[in-house]
Amino acid sequence: MMERHIFLISVIGLFLFGCSSGDSGRSSGSDNDRAAEPVRVIEVGLGELARSITYTAHLQAFREVYLASSTPGRIHRILVEPGQQVRAGQVVVEMDQTQFHQAQLQLQSLETDYRRMDTLRKVGSISQQQYDQIRTQYDLAQSNLAFLEENTRLMAPFPGRVSGKYYENGEMFSGAPNTPVGKAAIVSLVQTSRMKAVVNVAERYYRYIQPDMEVKIHADNFPDTAFAGRVSTIYPVIDPITRTFKVEISIPNQQEKLRPGMFARASMDLQQVQAFMVPSLAVLKLQGSNERYVFLEENGRARRISVELGNRYDDMVELISDEINEGDRLIIAGQARLLDGVEVTVVQ
User: Fold this and answer.
1) Are residues 199 and 263 in the same domain?
2) Pairing of the two strands 85-86 and 214-219
3) Of 18, 103, 248, 301, which has the fewest beta carbons less than 10 angstroms from its beta carbon?
């Protein structure tokens, strides 16, 4: 009797489970039969607008050099200090002169022999080969002396200021890298009467940037002053990862208010450019982030597209995206209820 009761309970349980599963399947199927969401759309079109773009940059010296001897040796004297202004051709470092003086004496001796041999050659007392040998030795001695003179008396190649001093008098210069940029140097110089800034400009503006274009530079240290600059170099390569290209800006700085390393903003007026202008209500923001997105209507379904925002004009905003083309159908009403791929129906 007990076994019969257990059997009946098991049969009833299986029957109820089957009914429950069938009901659940029917309920799930009804959820998939979701009605199409009603939306309103407009066609995306390009319009002309005045564009000013601004990019951040760190100012750099127009020219910078790290002065060092080409061979290791003892430093005799460093004639400048950091911050000191120097003129082009001014001696800033003197290395040990021992080898230089030896080369001078050797050249003087060879010069005497060379002149004597030249006189003997003219009267036919020596062969051409003997003359050529002494001439070669004399030329090599001249070259060696010029090399030592250049590397024992380091001169400023341009007018500027001393930006770094890395040794003291009497120390040995080893030639090993010892500066923040990984170069070997005894002193470093910068030219700050003119500055430069390098900015990474978005690829879409490449055709609008022209050589000698005016640029306004704003530095945080001088909030009420706009420094005038000009585009000096446009790099010809687009970075495939960032989709940007480099633009170098030259900035006159005769009063030397600007300094290398300052944070600045560079603004350029591009005049008239083509852009997608849409109602700002069409743009949605993902909660908890700065991501902006819109929905396009494609073949009766909603397609989500991430976008960047450009300039705003009253209730219109510029959309920036490589996935949006002229003529696309942008959803401007009803998009708050949408998910990517959801079926939609366009209403007037």
Assistant:
1) yes
2) unpaired
3) 18
Using the CB atoms, write b or e for 130-150: b if 16+ within 10 Å. Answer: ebeebeeebeebeebbeebee
**Cα 301 to Cα 346: distance, rounded to the nearest angstrom:** 10
130 within some domain: yes
Structural domain harbouring 137: 93-155
pLDDT of residue 233: 96
In a domain, residue 41? The reply is yes
Q: Which amino acid would we find at residue 338?
A: L
The pLDDT value recorded for residue 76 is 92
Amino acid at 27: S
Range 291-320 average pLDDT: 90
Count of Cβ atoms closer than 10 Å to residue 123 Cβ: 7
Token couple for 274: 């083509």
> Of 214, 243, 272, at which residue does a domain stop?
272
What does the pLDDT look like over 141-182, one tens digit per residue?
888 888 878 778 899 999 999 999 999 999 999 989 999 889
Q: How far is CA 4 from CA 54, 186, 279, in A?
A: 86, 102, 73
| Co-location of 251 and 297 in the same domain | no
Which phi and psi angles does 347 have, rounded to 5°? -120, 160
Alpha helices in the chain (DSSP H): 2-32, 98-122, 128-152
Predicted confidence at residue 249, as pLDDT, reads 97
pLDDT of 99-115, one tens digit each?
877 888 888 888 888 88
What would the DSSP string read from start to end of 288-348?
Answer: TS--EEEEEEETTEEEEEEEEEEEEETTEEEEE-TT--TT-EEEEESGGG--TT-BEEE--
Q: What local confidence, expressed as pLDDT, does residue 312 receive?
A: 82
In a domain, 100, yes or no: yes
CA 296 to mean position of chain CA atoms = 34
Which of 240, 272, 304 is a domain's end point? Answer: 272
CA 135 – CA 114 distance, rounded (Å): 6
- SS3 (DSSP) at 262: coil
Alpha carbon distance 87, 161 (integer Å)? 9
Residues whose CB falls within 8 Å of the CB of residue 72, separated by 6 or more in sequence, listed in order: 172, 173, 174, 175
**Mean pLDDT score of the chain, rounded to an integer?**
85
